[in-house]
Known about the structure:
This protein is α/β, with parallel strands linked by helices. Helix content is 45%, strand content 19%.
Amino acid sequence: MSFGSxxxxxxxxxxxxxLGFVAFARRRARRxxxxxxxxxxxxxxxxxxxxxxxxxxxxxLLVLALAMAAAATAHPRARIRVRVNNATVVLLVDVSGxxxxxxxxxxxxxxxxxxxxxxxxxxxxxxxxxxVDFSDSPVVVTPPTADHEQVSQALDLLTPTAGTAIGDxxxxxxxxxxxxxxxxxxxxxxxxxLPAAIVLLSDGNQTQGFEEPTTAAQVAQQxxxxxxxxxxxxxxxxxxxxPFARRVAPDPALMQQIAKVTGGRTATATNATELASFYRTIxxxxxxxxxxxxxxxxxxxxxxxxxxxxxxxxxxxxxxxG
Length: 322
């Protein structure tokens, strides 16, 4: 919680003054008490004296109303989760030869396709989603589109091929996001991210390409694009058979570094269940965003309700001597 006009909170200093005035008024009232000969009136006075607690309820409500009103004039701001109906998500997936390894059943790529298909199916209808794959070089399989079924079908076209050019793939995905934002006439506000994200899946380290992954991550950060990353596979993944077999392990440290630079989230998935969980987790956040909003109206409404309560209980419980 923050305040746009914090100096207005000085109005809270009026509350101790109000409490002091009430205490002084009650003290003077007690000094001016007289002897009553009217027994019914005396009984009502004694009843009021025996149960003093409720007499302070209207005062307490009035104090709270003043506090809420003072806070409202200071223009309080709060971070609120709001629904987002349109954004762009680019799925960036490694299709290097190691994605055919079977340490993640049925294969790394099959598990990735299944998880990404579920992710696409759960995205809000207004979201645009694109698909970029990379091995030795990146390929834009599907530019961002609101036709989620088209992307889901395109996932079946992914095939493991050769090396791993993570940096080049990330730069390609960044260009895809920028093009999508330009077509939507979205202009980035300085200090804010674009309404877009890249979800990068890789099962290895950089073996090909011209751009270093960390350099590409800095480009994404400067463009205001978060990159969520997942390292897929285990340390005992094997590609090939017999004397030609070689171990193919993921690089979680690199994935973590890319996510950290861009402000994204990261995970390591060693099986299909963990991978699906990662995509469900990030997918649930794409339908909403956190914004800072002025909530002065909330405090003003609370002040009005509290004031109404103070007046109501004051009239109900005010001592009547007539």
